[in-house]
Amino acid sequence: MVSALGQAIYRFPLKCSWDAARHLSSTQHLQAQSVAIKKSSAVTQAKNVVLVEGVRTPFLLSGTDYVDLMSHDLARVAMQGLLTQTSLPKEIVDYIIYGTVVQEVKTSNIAREAALGAGFPDRIPAHTVTMACISSNQAVTTAAGLIVTGQCDTVVAGGVEFMSDIPIRLSRQMRQMLLSLNKAKSMNGALSLLRKVRPYYLALDFPAIAEFSTSELMGHSADRLAAAFQVSRLEQEEFALRSHTLAKKAQEDGLLTDVIPFKMPGGRIVTKDNCIRPSPLEQMGKIKPAFIWPHGTVTAGTSSVLTDGASAVLIMSEEKALAFGFKPKVYLRDFVYVSQDPKDQLLLGPTYGTSKVLEISGLTIADIDVFEFHEAFAAQVLANMKALDSDWFVQTYLGKQSKVGAPPLEKVNKWGGSLSLGHPFGATGSRLLTMAAHRLQKEGGQFALVAACAAGGLGHAIILEAYPQ
């Protein structure tokens, strides 16, 4: 059974009400330029929110070049890269928000530690958010909310993940014993506690990439979706190969301009993602199922890999951006957060989110020029596209009369996606937004739709509108 859909809806630009319902608005600036647009309605007086620039460190396979660093090192370099790319005066930043998933206990508020390391004034508040794979999406939209409500004009947002050094704990019994030992008031008391130690106390507690509520790995859900929507193993492998091939071409053609050089300790400079590895279908076909043996169809070759990386974006009010001479890339428009059954529909957030964000914006699939969908698994992306194109699914679970429609594949992830570029959990969302903005500029489109799934049955979708060139 599918649980009731939970959703949070936000609109930009806004007046005062967060749940005001109206069509996607063009801006006074856009109308003044007499730019032809597909759909519009009356302009509000609220601040327009723009994405000025976005950067990221190279996304690297965990356990490779970044292995001896810490998460705040990656976040700091991303923030410094944003400053360099924009020549942004640090003192005009009002707030800093970062997303992360697996937190380093020494730097629990990674946003604050990275900001101080990057040289931002200590008067600038910073906080960290976590929402699984859409953590940096939440950082960006929280930044937009601060701007719309008039509290800020300039916010640095982004995310970081560092899977090369995850926190591994002692067993709970050992932790409790050590805490008690620390309180022991005598040697005899300490020895008495130590005599209670059992061999199984020494077992280590590793973080699990599994759903707490269901104890299932996300790959199990991907396999279940593949079966439910009849996504074959060959389809998954073809999609994964497409992702790697497109990413390699984008890298070679110099399209991944958001990637900034990372100077390693010792002076060596890392300049490229290292997760991009196109493999022939014949080779992919030999890989064993990763989650359900022997009949599963999801493999390591069709799954995103554990990745280290950080990203950062500059979010501003349009007025402030223009006052400082910046040329924004896109407007942030309507966005939604959704949630559904974390077992059978764990990875269907893009379907629910896409349907809802198109509904509140007054747009259709045909109006969208650029799609950036997070690729946790090839099966997940393909299942969502089939769900969007299914009258039965939309009528049964979304309460609509007819299907939303699947995005044309030629508009989806044209420069690669998480399967090929890598997926540092907390950093992927702002990477998606920046890539969508760059594609809109390169392709001359007007609207982009970014959508992603996340652990817990969560999802996010947002509409971007190209800034007039």
From TrEMBL:
<dbReference type="InterPro" id="IPR020610">
    <property type="entry name" value="Thiolase_AS"/>
</dbReference>
<keyword id="KW-0496">Mitochondrion</keyword>
<dbReference type="InterPro" id="IPR016039">
    <property type="entry name" value="Thiolase-like"/>
</dbReference>
<keyword id="KW-0809">Transit peptide</keyword>
<keyword id="KW-0963">Cytoplasm</keyword>
<keyword id="KW-0808">Transferase</keyword>
<comment type="similarity">
    <text>Belongs to the thiolase-like superfamily. Thiolase family.</text>
</comment>
<dbReference type="Pfam" id="PF02803">
    <property type="entry name" value="Thiolase_C"/>
</dbReference>
<comment type="subunit">
    <text>Heterotetramer of 2 alpha/HADHA and 2 beta/HADHB subunits; forms the mitochondrial trifunctional enzyme. Also purified as higher order heterooligomers including a 4 alpha/HADHA and 4 beta/HADHB heterooligomer which physiological significance remains unclear. The mitochondrial trifunctional enzyme interacts with MTLN. Interacts with RSAD2/viperin.</text>
</comment>
<dbReference type="InterPro" id="IPR020613">
    <property type="entry name" value="Thiolase_CS"/>
</dbReference>
<dbReference type="GO" id="GO:0003988">
    <property type="term" value="F:acetyl-CoA C-acyltransferase activity"/>
</dbReference>
<dbReference type="InterPro" id="IPR020616">
    <property type="entry name" value="Thiolase_N"/>
</dbReference>
<dbReference type="GO" id="GO:0006635">
    <property type="term" value="P:fatty acid beta-oxidation"/>
</dbReference>
<protein>
    <recommendedName>
        <fullName>Trifunctional enzyme subunit beta, mitochondrial</fullName>
        <ecNumber>2.3.1.155</ecNumber>
        <ecNumber>2.3.1.16</ecNumber>
    </recommendedName>
</protein>
<dbReference type="GO" id="GO:0050633">
    <property type="term" value="F:acetyl-CoA C-myristoyltransferase activity"/>
</dbReference>
<dbReference type="InterPro" id="IPR020615">
    <property type="entry name" value="Thiolase_acyl_enz_int_AS"/>
</dbReference>
<dbReference type="GO" id="GO:0005739">
    <property type="term" value="C:mitochondrion"/>
</dbReference>
<feature type="domain" description="Thiolase C-terminal">
    <location>
        <begin position="327"/>
        <end position="465"/>
    </location>
</feature>
<feature type="domain" description="Thiolase N-terminal">
    <location>
        <begin position="49"/>
        <end position="319"/>
    </location>
</feature>
<keyword id="KW-0012">Acyltransferase</keyword>
<keyword id="KW-0276">Fatty acid metabolism</keyword>
<dbReference type="Pfam" id="PF00108">
    <property type="entry name" value="Thiolase_N"/>
</dbReference>
<comment type="function">
    <text>Mitochondrial trifunctional enzyme catalyzes the last three of the four reactions of the mitochondrial beta-oxidation pathway. The mitochondrial beta-oxidation pathway is the major energy-producing process in tissues and is performed through four consecutive reactions breaking down fatty acids into acetyl-CoA. Among the enzymes involved in this pathway, the trifunctional enzyme exhibits specificity for long-chain fatty acids.</text>
</comment>
<keyword id="KW-0443">Lipid metabolism</keyword>
<comment type="pathway">
    <text>Lipid metabolism; fatty acid beta-oxidation.</text>
</comment>
<dbReference type="InterPro" id="IPR002155">
    <property type="entry name" value="Thiolase"/>
</dbReference>
<dbReference type="InterPro" id="IPR020617">
    <property type="entry name" value="Thiolase_C"/>
</dbReference>
